[in-house]
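Q: For a teaching handout, I want to show students what a protein-ligand complex looks like in token form. Below are the inputs, and the small molecule is WT7. Please produce the holo structure.
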Amino acid sequence: MGRATSRRRSSCDAGQRRYAHERDGHRGQRRDRGPSIPPPDRLAAHANVGPDVYDEASADRLAFWATQARRLTWTQEWDEVLDWSNPPFAQWFVGGKLNVAYNCVDRHVEDGHGDQVAYHWEGEPGDTRTITYAQLKDEVCKAANALTELDVNAGDRVAIYLPMIPETIIAMLACARIGAVHMVVFGGFSADALASRLDDAGAVLVITSDGGYRRGAPSALKPAVDDAVGRSPGVRNVLVVKRTGQDVEWTEGRDLWWDDVVGRQSTEHEPESFDAEHPLYIMYTSGTTAKPKGILHTSGGYLTQVAYTHWATFDLKPDDDVFWTAADVGWVTGHSYIVYGPLANRATSVMYEGTPETPHRGRWFELIQKYGVTILYTAPTVIRTFMKWGEDIPAGFDLSSLRLLGSVGEPINPEAWLWYHEHVGGGRCPIMDTWWQTETGAHMLTPLPGVTSLVPGSAQHPFPGISAKVVDDEGKELSDDSTGLLVLTEPWPAMLRTIWGDDDRYVDTYWSRFGKNVYFAGDGAKKDADGNIWLLGRVDDVMNVSGHRISTTEVESSLVGHPAVAEAAVVGASDPTTGQGIVAFVILRGNAEDSGDELVQELRTHVGKDIGPIAKPRQIMVVQELPKTRSGKIMRRLLRDIAENRELGDVTTLTDSSVMNMIKDKLPAAPSED
Ligand code: WT7
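A: Here is the structure, written as tokens, with WT7 included.
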């Protein structure tokens, strides 16, 4: 490490610089030891889980998970809780049978809760729909019958490319009900991204809509589907929900209106039981290569852990709470904590279509007030945006219904934690900082309400029944306060089962660094003397932008796909609002002209079109050369220094250190939001 760098950092944080958290100046002061906030007595007395839960789980981990699995309704009990005889290929609740949709919907209706609201849905323009469990059951049955009519069978893949409307959930549950594997693609992804996912998963049906509302205007979805499906011969039909009334292109014979096909079906549908290991869904996520990974989740173990964590982490009281995960169903957070966890627990949830600033910056607080939301689960990037807008906005609404808050997606810096606690939670709501991943399916590290104290900025402890450690490069557990890597040392019920169609990549990516029994999460971490785990950001080439995972390689390969670009290097630079922002350095082809701003805009648009707007670089700089080691590797570390306006670290392994000086003064200012 260069002297200039360590001197500069000593005022903030010493230590190795490989971990994003320690790089990120904006996260400000770290508080490795608190302040520790004890659980409020009243909460402790009534919380769903008590302090014994950790001992109970560690005394017999498998028996503990079996107990949680019994919270679900099985048509056949399992013979074995876990089969780990062929690691890293796990089977949970072997021989057990259940229907996931029945567990999420029908059983609550049968138990007399048909009139309970499952979702208070609100569209961005202010239109609303209230859906009870009985209505949800009817809609799911109709959609399941429609899928069967379209010859969708158990095991077939169905792509869902929809905005945040109730049909998204109905479609997911209809798939689960008939054993089809859903693959929800976030509506912000491009036609290309959709096409590659349709192809990789081999989807037979796409469920979409004419569009949705975003930032005050209808935005279209169908054109991207037409483009993508045109390249995916396996897709037989496109089922289209009418949401905005926009004109759509229509391919006769292929395209069908949801209202026509689903509308005419019977509300009766007999749920079939599926094996605990029957595939439930695929969710694509970025890895360190350009090709996204199809993370496969299965039925029994997944539902067990999402349901139990939702109940324990959020202290969910089905008769009293109004629960709101303010995230998109297109991400795993939405799958586990808008759909499966809350429904399995018979929660009443809020679902909102739009962004926080439309039509005004108090929109979310208005919804909390209107529906009496008691539990709010959202991401640090949103909280930092609220901080930027100012505390007067939440102060203008009655947020007294809130009793518990959650955070997910990236480390929450103590400043944001304290602001959230005070200005949203009124100083009375504990915050659950939940660490988990698309791959883990459900919460893995979190405090527990009424049980643990709270340490702002730390996700704290492995959830009961979960085994996590902080290890060094050799896999040796580290002593307190040393910085290392987070690993999971035992399989867990909601774990991914493989990468769709690529078992080798599954083994290589997650289970090879420390052997086949240790899951490598890709995050840096540190454990303090009180046993709290602090997450320090990704250690691989994955960026975290507003809680979304984007791979540097994916953006680089999009950039070099543009005719003007010869070479590209992409880094994640700390960003006060989004956590990290994407900064690209590009070398133009000999014959390409550097038209300045115009070219930069064109490249940003190109990436947006290739991958999706979230992947548009915040800044792009055109350079003559990239810093490389003698072996030809791009030195991203130095690029990150530049992107973060830091003094440069060690440049001794650089082939030509003058390259850096050339680059240094060129970084254009970050554009304002788009
Ligand atoms: C990565 C997983 C889990 C759903 C949303 C993101 C980061 C997530 C936290 C947290 C620190 C966190 C990690 C992780 N992350 N939650 N509470 N504290 N970091 O899912 O896209 O699969 O991303 O998000 O880096 O590896 P994902």
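A: Two things your students might notice: Residues 110 and 134 are 9 Å apart (CA to CA). The longest strand covers residues 565-575.
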